[in-house]
Inverse folding.
């Protein structure tokens, strides 16, 4: 006989942000137009209003968590919380720290780290890497000198080597995403599969690649079931609003004008420096097979903070197996734990849920990984 044990680690508020994400919505077209600064302020305002409506949670220790792009918005929200507490804005949030997974933090450095990362994992030869590093002067993201033909040629060679590698998890197949459900923020229409055909049987017709992306289609069917929408208290007024996994109008592309979301804060390292002067704990983790925001870039900005190393690089374990590697830093009353998830992609919990659960549980309990 097998039994399962439920372990409550934390109460979780899951926020779809900004408007247009998930089931979140705005009542005017203009309200969908936002940026990092506005998004962080909206997130902070939401937390304060939520605690006003749910005062029984006011004394609970509060940790903010997020992944990927929350590496930009998250530290900004945390700073607003500390500043709000200091000037007496109510209700006071019992902030204790934050968790960031596979975070975008320094846009230029994080993207530049892809080249040394793919070399380190054996996708580039030593010769290609050395030539590219020399001719591009370590700058692969913003090419200032477009007349630098040697750099351009080297980057073309690099692209031939890694162009068909799956960036979120380099060991998984790269798939055609043309069947992925996409969302038109203003038109409220699906650009791909027709809703009428979206049932559990028709989904099997598009699952022909054997890829992780295939399974994302099931989330569309689940989230748009009437009983699910009722359980989530989605107002009937918004019945015509369909849930989709990716709202592309909120993406930012370096070479394109933004549609509704502007990436106006390119670097949040300064926010971490600000938080380092508070009584605060931080957990930053990365899947070590993620090429979107490689762990090398994350380690680079952490090292730039020049914190005291409390525990140097060492393995951490789940079920007596190496789950990843970790380091711990401190600065006065602030401490930061960095951890990798062995075999994890972008983002780590999707690929390594058991290991991530144990990592967060230990960290919240203030136990060493």
């Amino acid at each position: 006989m097998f039994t399962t044990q439920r372990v409550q680690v934390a109460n979780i508020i899951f926020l779809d942000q900004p408007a247009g994400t998930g089931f979140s919505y705005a009542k005017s077209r203009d309200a969908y137009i936002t940026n990092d600064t506005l998004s962080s302020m909206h997130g902070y305002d939401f937390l304060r209003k939520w605690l006003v409506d749910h005062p029984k949670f006011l004394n609970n220790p509060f940790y903010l968590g997020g992944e990927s792009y929350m590496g930009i918005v998250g530290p900004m929200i945390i700073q607003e919380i500390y500043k709000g507490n200091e000037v007496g804005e109510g209700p006071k949030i019992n902030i204790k720290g934050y968790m960031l997974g596979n975070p975008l933090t320094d846009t230029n450095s994080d993207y530049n780290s892809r080249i040394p990362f793919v070399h380190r994992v054996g996708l580039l030869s030593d010769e290609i890497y050395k030539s590219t590093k020399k001719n591009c002067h370590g700058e692969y993201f913003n090419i200032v000198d477009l007349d630098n033909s040697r750099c351009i040629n080297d980057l073309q060679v690099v692209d031939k080597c890694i162009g068909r590698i799956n960036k979120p998890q380099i060991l998984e197949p790269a798939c055609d995403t043309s069947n992925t459900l996409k969302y038109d923020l203003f038109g409220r229409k699906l650009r791909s599969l027709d809703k009428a055909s979206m049932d559990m049987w028709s989904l099997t017709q598009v699952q022909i690649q054997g890829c992780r992306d295939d399974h994302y289609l099931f989330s569309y069917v689940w989230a748009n079931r009437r009983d699910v929408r009722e359980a989530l208290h989605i107002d009937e007024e918004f019945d015509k609003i369909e849930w989709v996994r990716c709202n592309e109008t909120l993406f930012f592309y370096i070479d394109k004008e933004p549609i509704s979301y502007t990436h106006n804060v390119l670097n949040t390292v300064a926010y971490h420096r600000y938080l380092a002067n508070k009584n605060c704990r931080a957990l930053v983790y990365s899947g070590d097979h993620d090429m979107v925001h490689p762990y090398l870039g994350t380690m680079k900005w952490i090292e730039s903070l020049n914190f005291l190393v409390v525990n140097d690089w060492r393995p951490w374990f789940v079920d007596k197996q190496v789950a990843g590697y970790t380091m711990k830093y401190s600065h006065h009353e602030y401490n930061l734990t960095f951890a990798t998830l062995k075999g994890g992609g972008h983002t780590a919990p999707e690929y390594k849920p058991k290991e991530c659960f144990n990592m967060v549980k230990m960290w919240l309990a203030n136990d060493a990984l």
